[in-house]
Amino acid sequence: MYLLCIPLPLLVVNPPVALKPRLRWADQLEYLPQTANKLAMEEVLTLGLGGVGAVYSLALDLSKQARITTVCRSNYQVVKDNGLTIHSDSFGKFEPWRPHKVVSSTSSPEATETEYSYILVTTKALPEATPSTADILRPVVSKNTTIVLLQNGVGIEDPISAAFPENPIISCSVYLSSSQFSSGVITQTALERVVIGGFDNGVVNSMLLKNRVARFAELLRVSGANVAVNDDIQMERWKKLLWNASYNTYCTVTMMDTLTFCETVPNATELIRTCMNEVLAVSNALGHSIPPETVENLIKFTMGNGKYKPSMLLDRERGSQMEVEVLLGNPTRIAKEHGVPTPILNSLYGILSAENWKLRQG
Amino acid sequence: MYLLCIPLPLLVVNPPVALKPRLRWADQLEYLPQTANKLAMEEVLTLGLGGVGAVYSLALDLSKQARITTVCRSNYQVVKDNGLTIHSDSFGKFEPWRPHKVVSSTSSPEATETEYSYILVTTKALPEATPSTADILRPVVSKNTTIVLLQNGVGIEDPISAAFPENPIISCSVYLSSSQFSSGVITQTALERVVIGGFDNGVVNSMLLKNRVARFAELLRVSGANVAVNDDIQMERWKKLLWNASYNTYCTVTMMDTLTFCETVPNATELIRTCMNEVLAVSNALGHSIPPETVENLIKFTMGNGKYKPSMLLDRERGSQMEVEVLLGNPTRIAKEHGVPTPILNSLYGILSAENWKLRQG
């Protein structure tokens, strides 16, 4: 099962919500002309249509306030011809769901003819890949575009901000159990939560940024998505990194699911704890205030959660490049800048970089 | 190439020695009856006849003061029928060399009919394996037997000493480039050095222990082996562990030779240094005095030494159990007892234990 995101501890797990009551709110908007009239239709481009991309593209579409153009790569022909099959515990069953437009590339004329107010980036975060995400985005970013990053890791905003300093960037921490079983067929179960916030690069007007965040949150909320706005979105990213830089990486190095790792490896929990505490120390040095009990909560949650194959392990199993730079490389570089020792993260970074290198050799 | 041992820095690398001058000394003994008459013939059992076992069994035989019984497992029939083919830069070419006796098990009547003054253990050090080395030795250890451990790692003497507290134990740190290309065919190039010392368990009389060490060193020296006696043999073992717990382990985790690891992995040298410094800290806490420049010397030596596949990596490649407990498990447990933090060793121990577990599942 292709689980794109990481389950989180109790505080973020919400009971599955039935489809009808969720949609009712959005549906009602049609019968509330005094509200509906105020709402402009947003042109939204979504880049990447895997598990996360498909579910949030659908969610935005369900808001009836966004018109979705999707860029598909591996599943372009399938989606173009048949749309997507989406079975979502949070948003319902769609056989098929069709975006307004399907394009094969950001530089295709069908992609560039529209001015997008939001571009959702849900591709795997591989800053070392060519072409870079910034280069892929260039043909479709216009003056009024807000770029929304629904990706793992830390430090992912920097190259985008460097390429488009005038454009607002929204950073998101996503918790979504979704999978693409076969090309164009998406299943999402139980967990759906997204925390969003503006990325302050010191250039974009902070009120504009705030408004763009609020509007994007509204688009998601109106569709029934479980969305929260947090002004300290970087804290949310580091909180998610606690899990991703520990369980995700150790499971990938050992090629074991979480449960097998915990039951097999001597002092597994102590290894995870040491690793998480390094992430916590860097996060503290950056001024974020992740509650220290988060570490133990995450361990308890993971131990009680049965066999789970993290995303990076799935990448390694299928021979895909892993998100080593954004989950380990950037954290260790940030740690070094702030004088925080991270020997374990450095070590895992070295080991998994070696694996990525081998995967590149084929 | 099956390199059983680790090359060491300049201080232990000796120029290859031609065969003739080496043997001349031993040969001359035959013409010195006043010396030869004083020397008793020692009954020696060697357990394990891979690269290290074969070369030192040969060396002892060349002394003409030892009669060698060897226990062979995988290569029993080959050695029984044809002897061993040994091409040794240090001791010469033998096609074949035959031990006095070849036995298939320590409990076979041909093995137990003799009283051994020395038993050389050159098997891989796997304290977790069954039957244990102590159990394998039990049928052949008698009152006057000295047990000689030519194995990697630290803490390997404890289970042997617990099983045979009255028997002297000699501990050895071996540097030998030897390989068994096919069953019964051994090649040893250039490097040959062994440092030996008594293992003080507080029970064995220290003068007896000293004498047994001196006699064993004499047996080796007389054959032309490059042998040194060191009263702090544990220091020698920890010094060798500096390399074995760092390059050996990281190369095994990444499945890369030393050069590829150094050239591919970000901050490879820093990872190695951190790891070696943990070993050094434990060694210091135990009261050994490894010169601190040893770390940088080992790094310089390894960097300049080209592609080299460490023993544990070779084990992993061929699907054999790796010496994880004696190279990482024991050091981390000893560190914990002495309150020395070893996060990197703990981490590598966890990761490689997971690999050993997978190898056991087959």
Automatic annotation (TrEMBL), chains A, B:
GO terms for molecular function: 2-dehydropantoate 2-reductase activity. One of its GO terms (cellular component) is cytoplasm. This is 2-dehydropantoate 2-reductase. Residues 232-354 form the Ketopantoate reductase C-terminal domain. SUPFAM superfamilies: 6-phosphogluconate dehydrogenase C-terminal domain-like, NAD(P)-binding Rossmann-fold domains. GO terms for biological process: pantothenate biosynthetic process. Belongs to the ketopantoate reductase family.
